[in-house]
Amino acid sequence: MEDKRETEQLTNCALCANMCKHSCPTYLATGKETITPQKIARLILYEKKSFIDDKSSFFDVMFQSAMCGACKAHCIYDNYDLRKFIQKGRSKAFKEGMLPDETRQRIETFMSFGNPYGERQLIQKGTGDIGYFVSCSAYNDQQLLKAIDKIITVSKGQVHQFGGADICCGAPLYYAGDTNGFKQAAEKMKGEIKKRKLRKVIVDCPNCMKMLTEMYHEVGIDLDVEFVHTTQFLNDILKEGKIKVNRANTTATFHDPCILVNDMGITTIPRDILGVLGFEIIEPVYSREDTHCCGGVCGARIGDCSLSDKLRLMRISELKQTDADVYLSACPTCKAVLSDVGMKDITELVAEQMIND
Amino acid sequence: MKVKTFMSRIQGAPSEFIEKVKYIVGEENVSEKECDLISYSLDYWLYGVYLSQYGNLPSLPGVVISPQNHDEIQGILKHANEYKVPITPFGGGSGVLGGTIPTEGGAILNLQRMNKFISLDEISLVAEFEAGIIGANLERELNHRGYSMGNIPQSLYCSTLGGWISTRAVGQFSTKYGKIEDMVLGMEVVLPDGNFIDIKPVPRRSTGPSLKDLFLGGEGSLGIVTQAVVSVHPLPEGTVKQSFIFHSIEAALGVVRRILRGDARPAVVRIFDEAETERYFGEIKDKVTVIFISEGDSDYVALGSSVIKRIAQENGGEPLGEEPVNIWLKKRFDIGLGPVIMQQGAIVDTIEVVSLFKDAANLYNDMIESMKEVDGALSVSGHFSHFYPEGACLYITFAGFPKDPFRYYQDTWTAAMEATLRNNGSISHHHGIGYWRRQYMQQELGAHGVELLKRIKFALDPNGILNRGKLIEDGR
Question: Residue B125 sits in a domain of what CATH number?
Answer without folding.
Answer: 3.30.465.10
